Structure formats: C-alpha cells, structure tokens
User: Which sequence fits this backbone?
C-alpha cells in the first residue's frame, strides 16, 4: 500500500470555513465493488481530516492492480457504473452510509482520477458526497500496461453556507442617505436637454416635417 | 412598457389635441398598449371562479325566511347557505381548519345556530338571510372526556349531553342566546352506557347487558323525571344476530326519535316506548329518515345497488303503505352510497307530496332531488379537495388532422402524394358544400372541443381526494366528464399525459398513478382525457406499493410514452411492457419524507426485464432527525431556450440550466440552534449537490418552486418571528461550460456552479407557491403566491433575483405586495392549496389554475401580452383609415397626373 496525498488549499475555502460552528475531525472510509472476493463492497482507502476548518485531507488509498482494471474494463464494456460506498464518521456521528457513483468508462478514460466533494453542514455533518471524474482533456486513451495503477483522487470540502438574511440594514441606510440628500436640496437632474424634453421636441419636429412636405401645394395653386 | 407608456401618456394626449386632424397619428398611437391592469368590463372574461363548501356534514332547509335556502355545515369546517333553486352559495363562512373550527351542531330555527370547536366550544348565532353573526358565546366543559359529547337545541335551550360510560350521563342546558346556565348540570344515573350508544334527540339509546340477555335501553335526557325504557333486545332482532347488533340513528334530521337496529329494522320511540316500524329498510346500506308528509309521517329511504340502481322509496309510518309518488328507481343515476341529508315535504292541492331531498353521495357530490328522483341541481363538492391537476391539449379539428397527415407523410412516390392531395381537396370541397347547406350547427357542437389557434383552450383534469376525477373546460369552467373510483386514494397521485391529442389517429392518453385506498398498493387509471373513458390498460390495481413513477421521455411506435414504476421491492414495471427495451439511461430518485434520506436508481433493460440498481444515496439532513418539508422539481412542460442573461456591461452570464435538479427543503434539528432549514439543490441523476443553503433558527414551510436555474422556497424565521422567502440562482459563470447545442449531461460535468442567495421578508402568509411557465421560457418569470388572505399575487422574478448587478438599486428587504398584483382582484379564494401553471400556445401567456376550497382559473401574461393585440383593438377604425388612405393615394395620383397633363398642354 502506498501513500498518496493531495493537499488542497484555497482562499475560497478559508473564507468559507468561518461558517463552521466548531472544528472537528472527519474520517471517510471508501469502499468499492471492484475485485472483492466475497463481500459486495471492499475497502479502497480512506480520507481523513484532522480539522474540517483547514480542509487538508490525508488520502490513503490502495493501488489498482490488473484484477481491478480488468473488472473495470468489463463494466465499461456494458457502460456500467463504478459505485462507491462511503462511511462517514465525525465527532458527532459514526459510519453514516453515503453512496455515489461514476460511469466506469469515464473513470477509465480519465486515468483513474476522480474528484470527491463532501458537503458539510455548519455543524460538521456530511450530507452528501459527490463523486465526479476529473477532466479528461489531456488523457484520452490511457494504456493500462503496468501492474500497479495509482488512483488520483482530489478531495474538496464544500460548506453549506448560512443563507443571507433579508438585507434590512443597508436598505435603511440607503433610505436615510436619500432622506439626507432630499433635505439638503433637490436632487439635481443632470440629464441632457434632449433627454429631458424629447417628448416636446419630437412632435414639433414631425409637425414641421409634415407641414414642410405639404407647403409646396398651396404655392403651386397660387401659380395657377 | 409600463414606464414608457406612463411617460408617454401626457404628451400623447397633448399630441392628439395638437394633431387631431391627422388620422395616421391616431392609427400609429392606437398600436401602443397603455393598459396595464384589467378593466372592469374584463372581469370574468379570461377567468372564472367556482366556490365550494366541502363534503356536507349537516344540512337543514331554511323554511323560515322568505328566500328559500339550505343551510349546510361541512367537513371542511364551512357554514354556508345554498340557494334552493340553483344550488349556488348565498353566503359562506370558512372556519379554522384545525379542530377549533370543527362544526359539532347545526340548528336552523329562526336563526342559524352552530356549535364549533372542541372544548372550548363556541356557540354562535347567524342571520340566515345574510349570514351575519348575531351572537356568540364560548363554553368550556370541565370534564375532559368530551369526545362523545352530543348537542341539541330544544325550546331556545342548548342541551349538552355528556355520557360518562358505565356511570352516568351529564346533561347541561344553556340559554341559546346568552349562554346562561339554567342550573347545575343534572346527572342521570346510567351505568349501562358504552361507546356504541347513539343519541336520537332527546333519547339516549344503548344496547347493554350480558351477551345472552342483552337489553335495549333508552332514556329521555330532557325530562325532569328519570324514565328508562328497557326492553330485551331479542324483541327487535333475531337472537342469532345479537352478537354485534348495529345501532345507528336515522339521518336527515328525522322528526321523530328513531333508529335502525340490526341491519334493516327501524324502531321509533313514542310515548316513552319503543315501537317497531311496519316498514323495514330495503337495503342494509340504505339511508332513511322520517318526515312530515301529506298524510302524516312518512319514512323515506334511499340506497343504491346493482339491480335497481339508485332507489328512492317512501312509506307511511302509520299504515306501512308505500307512497308511490315519491318512488324512484333509476339505473342511469350514479349516486354511490346515497345518504339523505335533509328532506322536506309539503302538501300540494291534490293531496300529493311535493318533496325536496338533499342527497349526499360517497363521491362528495350533493344532489337536490324532488319526488320521483328528478335532480334539480348537483354540486361537485369533491372539487374542494383537488390533489393533482393536469392541463390537457385538445385534438386538432378533422380538416387540420387531414392536412397534417398529408404533410406528415414523407415517404411514398410523387403519384401517391398527388393522389392524397386530390383526396384532401375533395374532402375540403365536400366540407365547404356541407357548410353551405347549413349543417354548420352540427359541426359547431363537435368542433367546440377542438384546439384553437393559440392553443388556449384546454381540458383541465383534476384528481380529487374523494377519488373522483374531473375533466373541466378551461374557458368556461364547465365539467365535461367525471369519473368516480371509490378505491382510488389521491393523496400522492400523479397525472401524466402520456400521449397528447396532437397525434392523430391516436387518441390522447392520460394516466393517473395513485394508491389503493385500503391496501395502499399501486392503482393506475388510464383514460382518454377528452372524453373521460377508460382506454388501454384501463383500471390496473397492482399487488405492491409503489415508490416512484415517471414517464419515459421517448415515445414508442404508437407515440405513447411508457410509464416506469418502481415498487417498494425495487422492482421495475414498464407500462406497456412492450416499451421496456426503450428504457435506457433512465434514472429515478426516491426521497424518504421523514428521514430526508434520498436515493438514486439507474434503470436499464438487460434483454429480459428492466432492472433498477441503486447508484447513490445521501442524507440531506445529516445523521440526526430531519424531514423533507418541500420538494420542487422542474416542471415537465418547461423548455428553456435562453442560455444566459445579458449583463449591463454587455457580457453574458451563463445559467446553470440543469434539468435534473430538484430542490429539497429539509428541516432538521440542530442541538445548538434548535431548528434549522437546509435547502439543497440536488442533481438527482448523479447524486451531486449543485448548491445548498442553511437557515438557522427557522422552520420550513411546505412551499418550494423551481424553474430553469431559479429556486424559491419559504420558511418561518423563529428568530425574527416572520415569514421569509429565499431565492437561489445557479450560474456557470461568464464562460460557457459546454459548446452551444451540446446536450447537458449530469454524468459528464465535474464543475460546481456559482450559487447566488437572497432572502426577503414576506408580509403575508402564503399557502401555495409556483412559477409561471411559458412555451419557450423567453417571457419574464413570475412567482405566484397563494396567500391566506384569499389573494393570489404575482411577484416578478426581477424583485426576487438573487444576483444583483451594481447598476440595479438594492433590493427592498420587504417584498411589496401591491393590490394590482393580485390575480384574482376582488374574488377572494379561501384556503388556497395549490397553484398549477401551464404554458399556452402563445409565448406571452401562462394558464393558471388555483385549487383550494375554491377553484379559480385565469391566464397571466408576465411580460404583458406582447404577441397579442389588446382586447379592445379597433379593427374598424384601422380598416377604414387604411382604405381611406389607399383611396386618397390613388385619387391624388390621378389628379396629379391630370394636372401634369394640363400643365404640359399649356
């Protein structure tokens, strides 16, 4: 078994980490259906976080061998799915079962790289895990020849944000500002002359145009 | 448009004065639509309202006042007066839905008296003409066991009978108007009382005693001296039957205290003695009552059976002879389990009975009949509890169908096409000749149910709680067909239009997927929504409960969309089974309401059968206690055409328009913040979350709606003690994820959309929420809210947008609910429970049906009717002006050429 860890840092996450009530640990056991002897699911590895707030995962997963790859290829042939069972444990809850899946074909194409996103409530509980395949733009057809294949997993923590409250404070401020402005004097109308009086200009212009078009006629009559 | 027209208006009037001799300006400006709301003369033009009262519990004829009425009290806690001649509601009072509004007693004397609630009770008096409240007093009974309370009005005294089983009966009398107690409650010793006792005022009757020597006991609760009538039960029923003898009072405000014992024996209580009736019930399910007839008391009974159909019979109580002029037996009348609510008979000059019978049926319909069984009017009270609604398109007319089939057939040689052409032209010629011969009247009646040009005419199919299904014409509100299925429980019914009427020669096909009332197993009804007749599988009762159902997106060779059903054993059933090979890449989800556990399934045909495999599962409420309060999926009829929205800086913000998103509003208990509402936008194909928001110290309301990339849901903020409306919008960003034209796939993408949130204060209590839907979703989107005040308001999405551009003014935190945003103007709708929108053929218009105690249909145009001329468009003026202009042009041309000619000669 070989250690493989992906560290993920982002300012975005640090900002969001504030919404967490209190920090805690998170442990996710990952099981899959490939190359299992008797049981339906067998271990693929685990992801553990010492602190949800920092969001730094330690990913510890097995490497796939030929048995895994062959089975995966079999599933991909019929466009089947590669399913994961995850058991999520936190300080509050133990072994909450969450299932997720990707299409086996896409997983193979991507060179066994997947993205796991765990959605965490403000109290640190995981409500859903989404498993998605990483972009395959650079890797189209991976040759599976060697005997060991690294799983290339990326793990993100996503926080369920506290929703905003109705924004009363800034609205009241805005009203007060307007009130002040009104007390100081009328708001200056800084629209252009045309923008202000177009409705008077247009009819006159039309009238002038029409009368201009109609004028030659009496002149002609006078000539007769 | 509104801003523009309000700016234009003053200058426009000035201009008219200025140029009133120039016709073309009038023509030009008549094209500008200035109206914003509806005018008074448009009331009822595009909308209709039907008022209902619910299944009737008590009814009495109001014979005192001059305008004849029936006063009814219903199971929906409504007190109403119905016009005796038309059945229309004269006045109506809607009480609380909870047990506080439960009507216990209805008494119609000079005034209408009701007792409502359950300890404390409210006693109220109403004026029967106007429905005005005259008096009211409240009453609290000290005893806790008030469940078996009986109420009765006698000589302006309200009698409350409270049996304490196995001990005594407590009788208290109150002054009806003031509530003054005549004295203390009197306790009548009655150790023989039990749960099966009945009250037939003023007697309280029981069967009691050891099994072999059971007694029939009765006591007059109002008399001063305690007199108990006691007779062996064997005198009245066969001793073999006495194991469980039924006792039920006669219905319909029987004028003498009497009851049915056993299955069919009737016993009267007269002069403190039991008296066996000479007449027996005709059927054990029959409903009977005693009324005052032309020649003494008569016993009226009614029932429905397979042999005689609906049967109505009457016998004289004293002689036992049948009163023939009331008799009726009609196989065509379909009144399941008829029940006499109230009967009134008057004597005509020829010693005959003129009776009015108010008959309630198991399908919640109420019929007013006269003697001989002729129905004067019927009310379909089942419509007060609509559960599922579907708008169904009408078929095209025969000529259009012929045209369509002509152009629809691409294959075939030139000659066959030519032959078809000739044939259709011959048919058209025939039609023309026929219409010239004056057979248009015949055509009109059949063409009334034909699709109109703008596809505004529909049939609304409503599935009701009572198990009755209605087809309603959306323009007139008339009921076109009705079908009663006693075993259908519509609590979680779904309706699918599996084949529209657009595909001749196939007829339209609609399926109702519901549960069986007793077993809870799947119940599928397939019918033609235009006629209401059963078709194809017809009525199908499964032997297993259903978890989820859906309609397959691809039609089969007969253009029928198959139904895919997932049962509780996770087996899949496809209807029709021949469509099973079409099931490919089909996904389903199942949400457990009480645990907020959601699961996804992938369905696939493996050569023999369709198998479901669980693919994903999530616990949206976390590990603790949680429940799904509301769930909103994208409407099936919505097709989104616009991929993004233009920003003020001319860039485009692309929408995350995932058709597989479902909004779950989950209420969970948090140890720290008590209640918490979590709104989750979940892709139910892949099981990935697109966006989520948590509201602390809030309780969810069962209201949510979803359209395109917009989500709206409501919750009660416990911290601020107010209702709030939250919106959520999902965007891809300024870069498009997929190339234009590439279909979206939930399984391919790995990006997470940008989620915008916003919350607003709602100064009202909503009971229903929905989005408007239009044909191509190019028109603005409005949120419709049904309020507890009886209004249905339209809120433009612009007010609620989560994403605020810098150029726009900051959103007002409290949503304005202007009076002119009320769809139903002054027509109050009580207990709005559902809002159903459907797109019309016109892009601007959305058809809306509001269900609840009342039905209200209207059409809304969120961006105004930009594709329609306004209602009062002056066709004559524009025709006259245009023709005058053409005439003027040619005449001046003629005169000008003549002048030129003359000038040339000079």
Assistant:
């Amino acid at each position: 078994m070989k250690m493989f860890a992906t560290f993920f840092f982002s300012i975005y996450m640090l900002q969001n980490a504030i919404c967490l009530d209190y920090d805690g640990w998170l442990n996710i056991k990952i099981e899959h259906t490939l190359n299992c002897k008797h049981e339906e699911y067998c271990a693929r590895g685990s992801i553990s976080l010492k602190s949800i707030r920092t969001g730094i995962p330690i990913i510890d997963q097995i490497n796939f061998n030929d048995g895994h790859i062959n089975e995966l290829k079999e599933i991909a042939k019929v466009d089947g799915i590669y399913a994961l069972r995850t058991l999520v444990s936190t300080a509050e809850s133990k072994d909450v079962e969450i299932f997720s899946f990707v299409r086996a074909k896409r997983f193979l194409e991507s060179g066994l790289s997947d993205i796991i996103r765990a959605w965490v409530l403000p109290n640190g509980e995981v409500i859903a895990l989404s498993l998605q395949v990483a972009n395959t733009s650079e890797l189209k057809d991976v040759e599976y020849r060697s005997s060991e294949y690294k799983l290339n997993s990326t793990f993100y923590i996503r926080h369920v944000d506290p929703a905003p409250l109705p924004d009363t404070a800034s609205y009241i401020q805005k009203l007060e500002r307007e009130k002040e402005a009104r007390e100081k004097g009328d708001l200056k109308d800084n629209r252009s002359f045309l923008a202000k009086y177009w409705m008077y200009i247009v009819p006159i212009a039309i009238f002038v145009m029409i009368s201009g078009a109609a004028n030659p006629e009496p002149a002609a009559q006078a000539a007769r | 448009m509104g801003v523009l027209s309000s700016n234009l208006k003053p200058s426009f009037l000035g201009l008219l004065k200025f140029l009133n001799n120039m016709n073309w300006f009038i023509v030009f400006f008549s094209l500008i639509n200035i109206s914003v709301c509806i005018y008074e003369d448009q009331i009822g033009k595009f909308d209709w309202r039907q008022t209902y009262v619910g299944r009737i519990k008590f009814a009495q004829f109001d014979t005192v006042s001059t305008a004849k009425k029936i006063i009814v009290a219903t199971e929906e806690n409504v007190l109403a007066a119905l016009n005796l001649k038309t059945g229309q509601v004269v006045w109506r009072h809607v009480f609380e839905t909870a047990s506080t509004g439960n009507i216990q007693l209805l008494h119609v004397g000079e005034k209408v008296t009701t007792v409502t609630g359950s300890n404390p009770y409210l006693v109220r008096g109403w004026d029967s003409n106007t429905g005005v409240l005259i008096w009211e007093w409240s009453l609290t009974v000290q005893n806790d066991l008030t469940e078996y309370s009986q109420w009765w009005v006698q000589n302006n005294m309200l009698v409350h009978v409270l049996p304490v089983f196995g001990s005594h009966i407590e009788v208290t009398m109150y002054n009806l108007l003031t509530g003054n107690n005549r004295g203390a409650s009197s306790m009548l010793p009655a150790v023989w009382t039990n749960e099966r006792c009945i009250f037939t005022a003023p007697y309280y009757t029981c069967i009691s005693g050891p099994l072999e020597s059971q007694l029939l006991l009765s006591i007059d609760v109002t008399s001063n001296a305690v007199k108990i009538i006691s007779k062996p039960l064997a005198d009245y029923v066969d001793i073999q039957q006495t194991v469980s003898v039924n006792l039920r009072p006669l219905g319909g405000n029987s004028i003498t205290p009497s009851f049915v014992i056993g299955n069919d024996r009737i016993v009267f209580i007269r002069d403190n003695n039991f008296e066996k009736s000479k007449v027996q019930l005709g059927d054990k399910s029959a409903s009977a009552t005693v009324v005052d007839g032309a020649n003494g008391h008569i016993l009226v009974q009614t029932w429905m059976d397979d042999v005689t159909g609906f049967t109505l019979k009457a016998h004289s109580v004293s002689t036992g002879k049948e009163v023939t002029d009331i008799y009726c037996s009609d196989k065509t009348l379909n009144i399941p389990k008829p029940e006499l609510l109230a009967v009134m008979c008057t004597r005509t000059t020829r010693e005959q009975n003129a009776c009015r019978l108010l008959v309630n049926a198991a399908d919640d319909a109420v019929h007013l009949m006269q003697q001989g069984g002729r129905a004067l009017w019927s009310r379909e009270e089942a419509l007060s509890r609509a559960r599922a609604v579907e708008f169904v398109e009408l078929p095209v007319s025969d000529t259009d169908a012929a045209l369509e089939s002509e152009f629809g057939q691409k294959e075939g040689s030139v000659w066959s096409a030519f032959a078809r052409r000739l044939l259709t032209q011959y048919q058209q010629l025939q039609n023309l000749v026929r219409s010239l011969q004056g057979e248009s009247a015949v055509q009109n009646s059949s063409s009334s149910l034909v699709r109109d040009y703008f596809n505004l005419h529909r049939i609304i199919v409503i599935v009701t709680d009572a198990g009755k299904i209605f087809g309603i014409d959306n323009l007139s509100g008339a009921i076109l067909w009705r079908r009663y299925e006693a075993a259908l429980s519509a609590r979680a019914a779904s309706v699918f239009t599996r084949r529209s009427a657009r595909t001749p020669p196939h007829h339209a096909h609609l399926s109702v997927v519901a549960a069986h009332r007793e077993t809870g197993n799947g119940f599928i009804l397939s019918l033609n929504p235009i006629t209401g007749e059963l078709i194809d599988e017809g009525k199908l009762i499964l032997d297993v409960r259903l978890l989820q159902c859906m309609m397959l997106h691809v039609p089969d060779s007969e253009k029928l969309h198959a139904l895919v059903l997932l049962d509780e054993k996770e087996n899949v059933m496809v209807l029709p089974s021949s469509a099973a090979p079409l099931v490919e890449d089909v996904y389903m989800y199942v949400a457990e309401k009480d645990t907020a556990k959601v699961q996804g399934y992938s369905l696939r045909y493996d050569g023999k059968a369709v198998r479901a495999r669980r693919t994903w599962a999530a616990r949206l409420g976390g590990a603790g206690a949680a429940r799904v309060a509301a769930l909103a999926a994208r409407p099936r009829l919505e097709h989104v055409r616009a991929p993004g929205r233009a920003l003020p800086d001319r860039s485009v913000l692309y929408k995350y328009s995932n058709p597989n998103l479902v909004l779950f509003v989950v209420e969970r208990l948090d140890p720290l913040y008590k209640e918490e509402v979590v709104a989750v936008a979940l892709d139910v194909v892949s099981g990935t979350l697109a966006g989520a928001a948590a509201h602390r110290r809030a309780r969810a309301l069962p209201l949510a709606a979803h359209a395109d990339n917009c989500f709206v849901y409501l919750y009660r903020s416990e911290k601020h003690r107010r209702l709030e409306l939250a919106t959520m919008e999902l965007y891809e960003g300024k870069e498009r994820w997929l190339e234009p034209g590439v279909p979206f796939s939930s399984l391919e993408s790995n990006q997470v959309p940008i989620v915008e949130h916003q919350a607003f204060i709602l100064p009202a209590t909503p009971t229903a929420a929905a989005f408007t839907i239009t044909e191509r979703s190019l028109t603005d989107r409005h949120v419709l809210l049904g309020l507890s005040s009886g209004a249905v308001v339209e809120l433009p999405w612009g007010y609620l947008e989560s994403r605020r551009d810098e150029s726009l003014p900051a959103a007002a935190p409290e949503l304005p609910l202007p009076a002119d945003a009320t769809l139903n103007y002054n027509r109050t709708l009580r207990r709005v429970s559902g809002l159903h929108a459907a797109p019309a053929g016109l892009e601007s218009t959305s058809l809306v049906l509001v269900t609840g105690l009342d039905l209200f249909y209207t059409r809304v145009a969120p961006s105004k009717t930009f594709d329609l001329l306004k209602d009062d468009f002056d066709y004559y003026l524009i025709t006259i002006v245009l023709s005058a202009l053409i005439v003027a042009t040619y005449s001046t041309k003629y005169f000008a050429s003549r002048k030129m000619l003359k000038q040339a000669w000079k």
User: Anything to note?
Assistant: The longest helix of chain A spans residues 193-214. Chain A touches chain B through 49 residues (CB under 8 Å). Residues 1-17, 218-224 of chain A have pLDDT under 50 and may be disordered.
